[in-house]
Amino acid sequence: EAGVAQSPRYKIIEKRQSVAFWCNPISGHATLYWYQQILGQGPKLLIQFQNNGVVDDSQLPKDRFSAERLKGVDSTLKIQPAKLEDSAVYLCASSPLLGAAQETQYFGPGTRLLVL
Amino acid sequence: AQSVTQPDIHITVSEGASLELRCNYSYGATPYLFWYVQSPGQGLQLLLKYFSGDTLVQGIKGFEAEFKRSQSSFNLRKPSVHWSDAAEYFCAVGGGSQGNLIFGKGTKLSVKP
Question: What is the pLDDT of residue A72?
């Protein structure tokens, strides 16, 4: 079974530029998560989708971050414009069921973003 | 509010020695508890999880964890550490209607030969 795929793996941009990350979850997984992991911290949830609907985006900085999950499969996370403090690893995860608390989340390798 | 505390930022153990990584949580109801491991440049991999039943949980790679409600703890243990166990370990609590995870800040494990 293929895991969660993410691209690109690394990205370097200048502040005020825009950037987009892509995630392909495990086939058939209903729930998709985007996390931000700043150096020295644990992952922090940015947004959670169930199928193609948003169920939690309370920690997403909506003035600059946006995300969508087309047709309930792939997802993109965009930052526009980027700030220095957005430098982090962006992790995508998926789980089979609709937000069940005991579900295992399967993580992709992440995209490491450096904003200069 | 839900929170997870991992008191140790960095631990170094000798290969073959035993290991215990500490995790304390704050959660209003019965928590779902997880330990994930992250190797350099990799995503997180689930080691084990607890949501009910036996408070001693067995995981992959020889790890186990014990849920102690009275101490609000879920410490991770391994009797004999291997060099390949060097990584960062994250404790997480899940719950709520959407199954969101709250992660601790992680403990980096180094293994001496």
Answer: 83
The angle formed by the CA atoms of residues A98, A99 and A102, to the nearest 5 degrees, is 115
Q: Are strands B64-68 and B73-78 parallel, antiparallel or unpaired?
A: antiparallel
Question: In B, which residues are within 8 Å of A95 by CB distance?
Answer: 99
Cβ contacts from A onto B, under 8 A? 63
Give the pLDDT confidence score for residue A113 in this predicted structure.
Answer: 98
The residue with tokens 């960062």 is B88
pLDDT tens across B40-98, in order?
878 899 999 998 888 999 999 999 999 999 999 999 999 999 999 999 999 999 866 66
What amino acid occupies position A67?
A
A27 in reach of chain B (CB within 8 A): no
Segments of chain A scoring below 50 in pLDDT: none
Cα distances from A95 to residues A46, A63, A64, in angstroms, run: 16, 28, 26
Length of chain A in terms of residues written: 116
* Cα separation values, B88 from A48, A66, B69, B108, Å: 24, 29, 25, 4
